[in-house]
Structures are given as C-alpha cells and as structure tokens.
Specification:
Pfam families: Staph_reg_Sar_Rot. The protein is mainly alpha-helical. It contains 7 helices and 3 strands, in the order ααβααββααα. The chain has a 3-stranded antiparallel sheet.
C-alpha cells in the first residue's frame, strides 16, 4: 500500500513543506532553492561554487542557473579568486545582506507551521540525516 511506503511519506512531507515555504519566500523574491543558496551565503560569505555545491548537495549544472538568477537580481556576485583563477568565489551584495533581515522570520514561521516540539525537531533532523547518509553510501 502507498501509505506504508517510507518513500511516499518523505515525498509528501517534502512537497508539503516546500509548498508552505512558497508564500514566505515569494515575499522575499526567492524560490526555495535560491533561499537555500542564500542561507549558505548568509552563514559564510565568500564561498567557492564548489563548496556551495557540496554544502547543498547540488551539481554545478543545477547550481549555475540558480546563481545566475541571484546575480541578476543583485543579491550576489561571482568573482574569480585571485589565488586560484580556476575557482569562482560567491559574495553577497549589500542587497543580499539586507535581505537576511527580512528572511529571519522564515524559520520561525516554518517552525510554527511544523508544530514539532524541540525534541521532535531534533529527532526528525537526526533521522533524516541518517537516512540521507545511508542511502548515499556506495
């Protein structure tokens, strides 16, 4: 039965959570994948494209269009690194930095929407990280 499948529960939860993010992120002018990029940059400005891809578990071919749109929106800039011209560093613009203040409400709103206790939240993250590690292993 469909409801007995863990894969369906994950799929349904992922779709529901992403849909709940949509109106919050629309106010910021971001899609969910763009929001994830911005979260990494707010945490660590000046990161290489390679390191960003590793953090988000995304291939360069998926990341490049996201970065182009964020750059066109004036939220980040891509620069060749002076110490390694083969590598591109991503840096937030002033507009990208200012957006963080408006985005601070998103995790709180999503936490309320999920309705988990702090213990349930920690357990869910732990289990999902374990599941990801297990299915990603060779």
């Amino acid at each position: 039965m469909l409801d007995d499948q863990l894969c369906f529960a994950l799929y349904a939860a992922s779709r529901a959570v992403t849909a709940r993010y949509r109106p919050l992120l629309d106010e910021l002018g971001l899609t969910y994948p763009q929001y994830l990029v911005m979260l990494v940059l707010w945490e660590q400005d000046s990161i290489s494209v390679r390191d960003l891809g590793a953090a988000l578990q995304l291939e360069s071919s998926t990341l490049s269009p996201l970065l182009k749109r964020l750059e066109a929106a004036g939220l980040l800039r891509r620069e060749r690194r002076t110490d390694d011209e083969r590598s591109v560093a991503l840096r937030l613009t002033d507009a990208g930095l200012r957006l963080q203040d408006r985005a601070d409400a998103v995790p709180l709103a999503m936490g309320d929407a999920m309705g988990l206790t702090p213990e349930q939240d920690a357990t869910a993250k732990q289990l999902l990280r374990l599941l990801t590690a297990n299915v990603s292993a060779p």
